Amino acid sequence: MTIGLTGAYDALAVEAPDIVYLNRCAGGCQVQGGPDDAVNGKSSLISGSHTAAAFPYADSVFDETAACVRTTLAPYNVQVRITGPGAVPRREIMLTTVPATVGLSAGSAEAAPFDGSPRENAIAFVFATSIGPNVENLCWITAEAIGNLYALDFVTSCLDIMSWTPGCGVKSFTNQDAPCSGAFGTPGQCFLGNTTQNSAARRESSACFMYCEFTHDSLAGSHCAGLFARCEPSNHDTICSRVKSSSSPWLQPRRAR
Fold first, then answer.
1. How many CA atoms, within 13 angstroms, populate the side-chain half-sphere of residue 63?
2. pLDDT per residue over 61-85, tens digit each?
3. Count of C-beta atoms within a 10 Å radius of residue 109
4. Residue ranges of domains in the chain
């Protein structure tokens, strides 16, 4: 279905927010290998059945981390929850201890399924013991895992959440063309072959960019530059002519009211 920017903007106002569930795994989280299915506790990243250990730090550390993640995602149409949402699709982040608790190899701060496409009902893991009790770092790595579930690749710009580089202050989904790190393949390239990614929304003035088709937009065979296709006023209608009328898998900007 093709509609103009005004229609896309109106659709944004009525669409229910995505659910991001921060699961502290109190008492342990049961998770098993299989096709990604957060509702039924299945992850494509693991084999067999495991009990992910509980978040290892104090309630105050978890609560501050959750508040930081909410602030980070505040510009987008996302509801961040710390209580189970029930049997509804969600992007679930299990904040647990170390990779071994779910049968993964040591050395990772987070793990999320990634193939260049968004995952609407999937689990990612954040290994809090590997990170430490620093709220800023826990928030950054959690937001990074969420970014992966929205098909955001890794970049080299230090201030971007999708960069692995520490020590440059508070990170965000930056509104700039950042070089891809090549973490999933060729150095300097994103998974889908583009070389840069803009990890931030243009907010309401560029609402259409969220609806630009990821792999093939109206410019035959071209790729949107990462999750956030940049839509300038002069080329909205050309680049973002395809608008999803059903639930969009992409992070959407909140509409000002």
1. 3
2. 999 999 999 999 998 899 999 999 9
3. 21
4. 17-151, 153-200
C-alpha to C-alpha distance for 128 and 39, rounded to whole angstroms? 23
Q: How many residues does the chain have?
A: 257
Closest CA to 142 of 88, 85, 78: 78
Q: Which residues, listed in sequence order, are joined to residue 91 by a DSSP beta bridge?
A: 20, 122
DSSP secondary structure, 45-97, as one string: T--SEEEEPPP-S-HHHHHHHHHHHHHHHTTBSEEEESS---SS--EEEEEES
Q: What pTM does this model have?
A: 0.77
Read off φ and ψ for residue 106, nearest 5 degrees.
Answer: -65, 160
DSSP summary character for residue 105: P
Half-sphere exposure of 22 (CA within 13 A, CB side): 25
Return the number of other C-beta atoms located less than 10 Å from residue 245's C-beta.
13
Q: Tell me how far apart the alpha carbons of residues 183 and 188 are, in angstroms, rounded to a whole number.
A: 9
Tell me the average pLDDT of the chain. 79
User: HEC profile for 108-156?
Assistant: CCEECCCCCCCCCCEEEEEEHHHHCCCHHHHHHHHHHHHHHHCCCCCEC
Q: Report d(CA 21, CA 149) in Å as an integer.
A: 12
**What is the dotted CATH code of the domain comprising 17-151?**
3.40.390
Rounded CA-CA distance 211/229 in Å is 9
Task: List CB contacts of 3: < 8 A, sequence separation 6 or more.
Answer: 11, 243, 245
